[in-house]
Amino acid sequence: MTHKIAVTGTGGGVGQSILKSLYNTGYEIVALDGELLGTGLYAAPISYIIPFANRPEYIPTLLQICEKESISLIFPGMDAELAKLSQNRDAFKAIGTTVVVSSPNVIELSDDKQHMYDHLKNSGINLPFTSPLQNITYKQVKFPIIIKQMIGGARSKNVFLVKNKSEWDATISQIGDKADNYIAQEYIEGEEYTCGTVNLNNECKGVIVMRRTLRDGDTYKCFTENNIVIENAVRKVVETIKPFGACNIQLRMREDIPYIFEINARCSGTTAARSLCGFNEPKMIADFLLKGVEPKFEIKEQTILRYWKELVVENDIIQTLQRDHHLLKSNSTAL
User: Fold this and answer.
1) Within a 13 Å sphere around the CA of 259, how many CA atoms are in the beta-carbon half?
2) Cβ-contact 23, 278 below 8 angstroms
3) Structural domains of the chain ordered from first start
4) pLDDT grade, residue 303 (50/70/90)?
5) Cβ atoms within 10 Å of 179's Cβ, excluding its own
6) pLDDT at 335 over 80
């Protein structure tokens, strides 16, 4: 029996990274996205246009597709979908589909940076000092400091590195009446890392550590490292919050101490890079949930450089998807 796995958000980097990791694994892939020109829709054998997560028909449409296609697993590829999918896990389970998503409590914790800090600060985990922006003045901070959204935010959008009082005043003015959704966070000077984890049955089954270079908020270059200090810190985080499936931890190193500043309870835009280094999160999760195979991996220390790749799609294929909201066996080249 060939299991079908659906991936949402395949027009974006996370969804595409999951798709790449599942190619040539023996699973049949179904790509889902809300945009007609979502790239991943044309790089999978089966694809569907679906409503956006904020639409009332989002969950009913997904359930209909999962039942029609006999989907075994769904991997979410967008933050906006996580809460909705988490809240409706039982509805999917009733039709035989497992959504690889954490509990609503874990989703809320990972999405709310202040909540994360308050929850973890007494757990022996090193975190940069974090405070609601409204509760602090420039006299109480040590510059430079980070000001960013408390809830949501991605790819370094609405993130400000503030170096002095004049920049503080300018940032406060720019944020305006939205200050209640912003935090002030201690700036950690040092190398930045993105770390992937696989979590099943309330147990961390594996960690990969990657140092990274950013461009426009996305990982541009990454380097696998064998760093037991970081690995232990990451394990402590996931063993404390207990996510399900993949969970991405971002941190910076200062004086050989890892400081956790971001948790994403999902796969990452670097999931495909990790797969190339021997740590294939989607496949390990799928093999465990669908075949009962314990996660196994052998991480290779290597460098991953990212580059654009063109995807040619014939216009009649786009027209078919636009008309039917469904595409079978696209002729496009895989990502």
Assistant:
1) 17
2) no
3) 4-100+308-328 (3.40.50.20), 129-186 (3.30.1490.20), 190-301 (3.30.470.20)
4) very high
5) 15
6) no
